[in-house]
Amino acid sequence: MLAGAVVLWELASLTGLLSRTSFPSAWEIGIKFVELIQSSYLWIAVGQTFAGWAMGVGAGAVLAIAVGTLLGRSRFAYASVIPVVEFLKTVPTIAILPLVIVVLGPTMQMKVFLVAWGIFWALTIQVIYGVRAVDPVVRDNARILQLSGWRLFTTVTLPSAAPYVATGMRVAAAVGLILAVIAEMIGGSAGLGLNILVSVNAGPTELPSMYVYILMTGLVGIAVTALFTVIERRMLHWHESQRNLREVGA
Amino acid sequence: MVQAQRVGDRPVATEANNREDTGEQGAVLSVRDLRQVYNVGKASEFEAIHDISFSVQKGEFVCIVGPSGAGKTTLLRCLSGLLRPTAGEVLFEGRRLDKVPDRLSVVFQDYSRSLFPWLTVAGNIAVPLKVAGLKDAERKARINEVLRAVGLGDVGRQYPWQLSGGMQQRVAIARSLAHQPDLLLMDEPFASVDAQTRFDLEDLILRVRVEYDVTVVLVTHDIDEALYLSDRIVVLSSSPSRLRTVLDIPLERPRNQLTTRSSEQFGKLRTELLKLVTE
Amino acid sequence: MTTEKVFAKDKRQRSSPSRLAFVRFAKSAWRAWFFLALIVVWWFVSLNSTSTFFPPLSKIMSTFYDLWIVGNAPSTVLSSLIHFAIGYTISGVGGIVIGVLLWRLPRTSTAVSPLLYFIYVLPAVAILPAVAAIMGYGSEMKVTIIVLAAIWPTLLNTLDGMRSIDPVRMDTAKVLHMSGFRTVRSVVFPNALPQIMAGLRNSLQVAIIMMVVSELIASTSGIGFFILDAQQRFAITEMWTGVIVLGLIGSVLTLIFVAIERVVLRWYIQSRAVEKNS
After folding, report:
1. Which of A148, A189, A240, B188 has its CA 20 to 30 A from that of C193?
2. Which chains touch A (3 or more CB pairs under 8 A)?
């Protein structure tokens, strides 16, 4: 199927259906791809985008799990803070981007902060729901078994909340990557996004490399999604949704 | 054999009265004037339990039966300390219950929800042992021991949901016995398994309670099961639940699914109990 | 039944529904205290702020009044909202229609799905410069960008939701001799609706982001341009007002969506509540 799309692209390009100035032929892009993939320049950019994404998602997730768990424990804290969190969740992350850019400049910190902020609110809500959604039978069992404190958190609360957290994390991973690319493209932080913009501004001769960078961004997206699917499958192998998957697969 | 003797020692069935003599001496569990009302002061106010008193002696097997919706589960939650009663009190080993005590354990009906699906069988059984602070080696030994006791072999590394329903309930029983409690409460523990497994599990629980020297209080809606298992049966009325009577079951021990259930005495008791429950 | 119980019921019935609604509102109104406290804290902490980036909230509010209440800044938002409305409508309708078509053509959808998922995971912003280079900097480009990015969540969720129909429900439809169209309309589509709504909500967030990003990268109008322009002139207080307006736009659009969703999915939300209680 993918091969078919490439062939179609090449044909359209050869017959002039796609204008050569905006769409270089698949062949040209291929050559550029092979050339760039051997240069460290491309891989450094991939590394920068990935690092910003990973640190941002990591920081945002740790904070969201900590805050969400604390809030989920108390009805009062939950009811008080939820309106603020719900409101801030609806504020598009893009709104604070200009602010973050002027305060932090085109740096890695800016990228990390933007990604962390962008995923924090939605993920916190997911964690709160997860912590509050512990099965009453499981909660009774935890009390019968005298679980409390840290042991209660690791043995019961976290595993129960895990399916909710996983859903939140999957979305966070995708959103985080978009935000990392935005931070590079608009904020000027180094990475694939900046390279795309630079190639566009360099004029028609650099168009093939722009497509290579776009392709590369897509590949990073696939890698990130695949990574989370694998993690989810390993961590939640006990959960109904995953059990069913295995049965279907077998 | 010990059991049979003790049954013989006890006084014969007292007449049906709402206030049974709560013998404090040696009672593992005593319930005094227990009342449970939900949604107090609201339009949906609902009285589940009305002034129930009874007590359970050490080593006894007591079943609680009643028509469906009689607040049996509510009563059990009060007995375990999961639910604070609206009025009255529950004493466990002479002390008033304000939380779930260490020496008490509960087996719930729904094994698929009460076992932690994210832990292996061994992991599930290890939870109460970790809480009790047992060392690694000791813990392993204890896990193997209780697994053997409930008739499960080498399933420690499997996940509960990979096992059949009957096996899962065995794991739940093993987990509740692991830290060697004095009192085991069971809420319709065999209601979700098939008939044959049910018989097996009934015999299992009769065997392990001797092995572990544990007092058992079991809630059920199945009067045959209650007769087969009990030394005494607490019969509840329909909602709001009141104590209808406490019935002594002088059936000989050890009991056997075939001979006990087909005995003439069993039939008589069954008729009597059925009358009490359906009236 | 006890006498207290009867009495309690009577007392309830005497209060009118509107009064009850007010009581319910008053009961949950206290939840806003933390929100208000944060704003008060912000106000007083920033009162004597000399930081260029964090001007006093009082100053932001007065600038906000000058620009957005009496000034003509709101007109700049209009073009953004028009692009958003057109783009989001096309993505929503297009996503559902294509999703349903792909569901009807299972072979095509199996063939196309790797490509679809690739485009879905490709961060949409990455193709933005390419689209701008091809289409120029007009309204068409902005609408195209919004559609190209926002159509995927709706499309894929529609497809997934329709595929996940319970086979028993399909058999029921057959037993009842329902026609193909009727089956889709009264069985498959309602069944997939919760997931379709989830997709539409996702698309909404993406559409808002792309609306702003398209203006940040290439534009001379719109809320995104307003913020960028203020930032480049180093008019930080003005920029703050833009950020607040953008935040409010996002919130209001989401709230409207949630309100619509509550109506559309009433049966679903209620059935879930019943399940939870039992």
Report:
1. A240
2. B, C
Q: Which residues of C touch B239 (CB under 8 A)?
A: none
Task: Say which residue the tokens 């094994």 belong to.
Answer: B111
**Does residue A193 surpass a pLDDT of 90?**
no
SS3 of chain B: the string is: CHHHHHHHHCCCCCCCCCCCCCCCCCEEEEEEEEEEEECCCCCCCEEEEEEEEEEEECCCEEEEECCCCCCHHHHHHHHHCCCCCCEEEEEECCEECCCCCCCEEEECCCHHHHCCCCCCHHHHHHHHHHHCCCCHHHHHHHHHHHHHHCCCCCCCCCCHHHCCHHHHHHHHHHHHHCCCCCEEEEECCCCCCCHHHHHHHHHHHHHHHHHCCCEEEEECCCHHHHHHHCCEEEEECCCCECEEEEEECCCCCCCCHHHHHHCHHHHHHHHHHHHHHHC
Flag if A147 and B131 touch (Cβ within 8 Å).
Answer: yes
Given the DSSP bridges, would you call strands B183-187 and B87-92 parallel, antiparallel or unpaired?
Answer: unpaired
- pLDDT tier at B60, thresholds 50, 70, 90: very high
In this complex, is the C-beta atom of B124 within 8 Å of any C-beta atom belonging to chain A? no
Q: Are C8 and B47 within 8 A, CB to CB?
A: no
Question: What does the pLDDT look like over C186-224, one tens digit per residue?
Answer: 778 888 888 899 889 889 988 988 888 888 877 778 888
B95: contact with A, CB 8 A cutoff: no
Closest Cβ opposite residue B114 in set A137, A147, A238: A137
Locus of tokens 């205290």: C33
Q: What is the pLDDT of residues B73-126, one digit of tens each?
A: 889 889 988 888 999 999 998 888 888 888 899 998 888 888 888 889 999 999
**Angstroms from C10 CA to nearest CA on chain B:** 9
> Given an 8 Å threshold on Cβ–Cβ distance, is B45 in contact with C12?
no
Q: What is the DSSP letter of C32?
A: G
Neighbours of chain C (3+ CB pairs under 8 A): A, B
Question: Chain B residues with CB inside 8 Å of A153's CB?
Answer: none
Question: Which of A82-91, B5-14, B63-72, C231-240 is predicted least confidently?
Answer: B5-14
Which residues does chain C have within 8 Å of residue B45's beta carbon, measured at their own beta carbons?
4-5, 8
Contact B220, B226 (CB under 8 A): yes
Q: In what order do the strands lie in the sheet with B215-219?
A: B104-107, B183-187, B215-219, B61-65, B232-236, B243-248
Q: Which residue has the higher pLDDT, B25 or B276?
A: B276
C126 pLDDT above the threshold of 80: no
Distance from CA of A59 to the nearest CA of C (A): 21
* pLDDT per residue as tens digits for the range B30-48: 999 999 988 887 777 888 8
pLDDT on residue A86: 75
Give me the residue from A138, A140, A151 closest to B116, CB to CB.
A138
CA distance C59 to A247: 62
- Tell me whether residues A92 and C127 touch, CB distance under 8 A: no
Question: Which residues 46-75 in chain B show a CB within 8 A of chain C?
Answer: 47
Beta carbons of B75 and B85 less than 8 angstroms apart:
no
Whether the bond into B101 is cis, omega within 30 of 0: no
pLDDT in tens, A54-90: 999 999 999 999 998 888 877 788 888 877 887 787 7
